[in-house]
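A note from the maintainers: we've had questions about how concatenated examples are separated. There is no special marker in the raw files; a new sequence line simply starts the next protein. For clarity in this README we add a label.
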Amino acid sequence: MGYVHDTHMSQFIPCTALHYVTGTWTQAAGQVADTIAMHKAAGAETAVVNIPVTIPSNSVALKGAKLASVELDYECIGAAATSVTAVVYKITRGADGAVAVAASQTSTQDLTAATDAADQDQHKLTVTITTPFWLDNDVYVLVEVSFICGGVITVDVLGAVANFTLRI
């Protein structure tokens, strides 16, 4: 039986698997033929999108997946947003009778929140975890992206990609 230690694994997370909190969101054809998107209608609001990071975990230390970064593909249409910011949360599952606990993880995003990430254009926002971590079977990860939008901006979210090391 073999052993796998691959430091360049990626997992696509489709736009239909994300959780859309604020705003009016509908499935729509993307700006490019043969793509789909979740489209946020114009409205002055802070729209929040939660990305569930669906990569393998393991009950044995230093096995499964070690999360390094998450990328989000989206488009700001009609005008620039005020800002686009991302926060990575590691959620520890609660034991029977206890609540789950969410802890933000130190990370950086490659596009500046109020300028590059928010301008009217197509974007790939990469959120890099400062200290990558292994997912044990008692945790999961959500990346929360907030789009602060004026009244005329619409947003199309195309999907996300989780980048990780796989050790099995």
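[label: protein 2]
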Amino acid sequence: MELSLEQVEAEIAEKTRDWQVFSDARAMIRARVLEVRDSTSPLTPLPTWSGTDAVLGSLDLAIHAMEHTLEELKALRRVAKPRLTLIDGGADGAE
């Protein structure tokens, strides 16, 4: 499947937004875990709950996959970008 430069740019923008949302979610969860690490709440304490590790692990996997996809898209963009070619129009200044 070939993509145009415009399609590659659109995919980069979309995947960057996805990456940002997932990264923000991970940061917010991690901050909350640190915030309540000394909590004495007896009901499913967030820092030691296995679900917390599962969620953070899943987010890490998704974020890593998104980063890999973005790297591939950026490589495609580098190849797809039109190159600037200077053409000598024959004006050599000898008139």
